[in-house]
Amino acid sequence: MNIRILDSSGFAAYDKYVYAHTRATLYHLSGWRNIITKTYGHKSYYLTAVRDDGAIAGVLPLVHLKSILFGNSLISIPFFDTGGILSDDETAEKALLSEAINLGQKLNTDRIELRHIEPLITAVPNTVTHSHKVLMQLDLPGNADLLMKTFKAKLRSQVRKPLKEGLYSKIGGSELAENFYKVFLINMRDLGSPVHSKKLITSVLDEFPDHARILIIYKEKEPLACALIIGFRDILENPWASSLREYSHLSPNMLLYWAMLEYACNKGYARFDFGRSSPGQGTYKFKEQWGANPIPLNWHTIYLKGKPEQTETSGASKFDTAVRYWKKLPVSATKIIGPIIRKHIGL
User: How far apart are CA 126 and CA 300, in angstroms?
Assistant: First the structure.
């Protein structure tokens, strides 16, 4: 078993393996290497386990994030919910893990983060697994009318309300990127979170032109809510969604999610992924009302230096003050400063 770090000439075979693997996710695809490198300049290492006959037996996409404030990590993959190792068997998994650890030591990283759904087979020393987050996924019927009939009367009423208020949806590509970012930028400021670069959004649309779309909810010509959706095999994913709080009385968020679900049904997808949530929290309950079911995540952190941190809360409190101050900044300032900070935050 040989481990190789791929260059661009090997990505066709790499992606073929990903598409054929039953546990593959959207974020295993090689296109994310191009997106992240073009947007933020992070170095990526896409590992493949190759058998003696030349067949690929496993893959592991890794992205190197290094900063004074947020540390030095290899992550599979940053900014999204899933990634990690895909392999045919435990032998390939062990070989990829060993090479990842060797690479992390060469790069002097503090840790390696592997964002799995199914947990690792291999036991790795100095590893902590966080399983308190879940993906919320909804199995879709054959068409949108059937889906609407599965909703409770209250939910159906909440979907119809924005339509009665004159709100409407529009689906497109890069021509909607400006309106998407207008809403996204304000919402991230209101949440106290540095915003991603607009280039990340446009790079996704450029890299996956047949599968990525922007959805906007409008009141007349004013964008009130936005989402980016990407299809992979039989599932439609929603990595980013935002709405403007000042228009919450019009319920644009309800129409936004219904429009995504309707699109998914019309395009023949079997499942819709609402994204990551913490059980019992507000976003979890919001997604649950649509019929979504939780799928546990297993995020493994391999510590290469120091003692493992048993919880994720150890470093959270120090950012609470920063969040409060960020909410007070002018949107124009967060547009400039936000991406400079956000590129180093792996979540």
Answer: 10
